[in-house]
Amino acid sequence: MTRVQLIGVGKEYPARGKQAAPVVAVDDVSIDVASGEIHAVIGYSGAGKSTLLRLVNGLERATSGRILVGTDEITNLPESRVRVVRGGIGMIFQQFNLFHSKRVAANVEYPLIVAKVPPTERKRRVAELLDFVGLSDKATAFTDQLSGGQKQRVGIARALATNPGVLLADEATSALDPETSQEVLALLKRVNSEFGITIMLITHEMEVVREIADRVTVMDAGRAVEQGDVFDVFSNPKTETTKRFVATALPTEPNAAHLEELRRRHRGKLVTLTFRDGDVDQPVVFQTIADRGVGVSIVHGGVTDVGGRSFGRLTLELIGDDLKIEHAVAALAQHAELEVLA
Ligand code: ADP
Ligand code: MG
């Protein structure tokens, strides 16, 4: 069980060439990842996510701030000690980074050889790990005979070989199709729940955050612009960057073009209701509308799961005479967050 703390961390790369300015890849970022938590870091390409992970595993040195992995302050350890701390950190990558010339079992065994684990113990551990990721029957295959999802499962088995307390995943599902991506995320969830391994996971896909993370940090141009419990951030995004990410993974209000299209097809009054974690009693909502003698159809939106809680946004068309609709809207506003679409 390992906590990871980043406290005011910065990373600046020196200018390349005379005209160029230095690049501030990470700018004053603080993240406290509790032991056993799955923490996602999301941001667009170039936001500084990969740099941040390389700082955590000590492959690069921060230019400011402090990073603690467990009780080890990696930011001021000599390289020889950093290597020891890195032994307690597993890494998986978008491109898997496997040895193509080695068989599956040998890939998983490699970190155990580096850690000088005796051969019989190595064989036992490799068998156990391949069983855990469901690849026992592929032990003697070469990695280029495997599908992308299988390769990433080998990557996960290898990362777990030395029993790390922390697993760092850099776009681990970005090269996979959606279905395979789901399988790998489910496996990472098992890694977290069965072994209590803390996971820091970097992604540019909000869907990944929604599926698996407990908490999330949104990065933009090197800075952490938003942070918190996944459900809270999703259901109430504050910054433009977060809003754009959330829109890719949650039911939204219709955008301007879509609204115009909806109006062409629907003559009634359009309203959007937001449902957060069962805070709205849906039968009451629909009964309220019916009680006012108003008809209703759902024209846009849906309900989805975020961090094990439900989030919904439904755009309804209310049909009937103006006064009845006005009363229905007033009554609805007592029961749910409601927006009348202008
Ligand atoms: P992300 O993973 O979010 O796409 P990166 O951490 O890879 O972002 O990069 C953040 C910024 O730092 C980018 O502007 C990138 O060009 C720059 N950068 C990354 N690594 C280096 C490096 N070794 N030298 C100089 N600049 C770098
Ligand atoms: Mg990256």
Concise overview:
Helix 5 (148-160) packs parallel to helix 6.
The beta-strand count equals 14
H and E string: EEEHEEHEHHHEHEHEEHHHEHEEHE
Quickly name the level 1 CATH class of the largest domain: Alpha Beta
Nearest-integer average pLDDT: 94
Return the CATH architecture of the largest domain: 3-Layer(aba) Sandwich
Structural key phrases:
4-stranded antiparallel β-sheet; 6-stranded mixed β-sheet; ABC_transporter-like_CS; Methionine ABC transporter ATP-binding protein; binds adenosine-5'-diphosphate; Rossmann fold; alpha/beta; elongated; 342 residues; 12 helices; Alpha-Beta Plaits; 29% strand; single chain
List the helices and strands and how they pair.
Blueprint: E1 4-13, E2 23-33, E3 38-42, H1 49-56, E4 64-69, E5 72-73, H2 79-86, E6 89-93, H3 104-114, H4 119-132, H5 148-160, E7 166-170, H6 178-195, E8 198-203, H7 206-212, E9 215-220, E10 223-229, H8 230-235, H9 240-247, H10 256-265, E11 269-276, H11 282-291, E12 295-306, E13 309-319, H12 322-332, E14 337-340
Helix pairs in contact: 3-4, 3-5, 4-5, 5-6, 11-12
Bound molecules: adenosine-5'-diphosphate and magnesium ion.
Keywords: Amino-acid transport, ATP-binding, Cell membrane, Membrane, Nucleotide-binding, Translocase, Transport
GO molecular function: ATP binding; ATP hydrolysis activity
Domain ABC transporter: 4-246
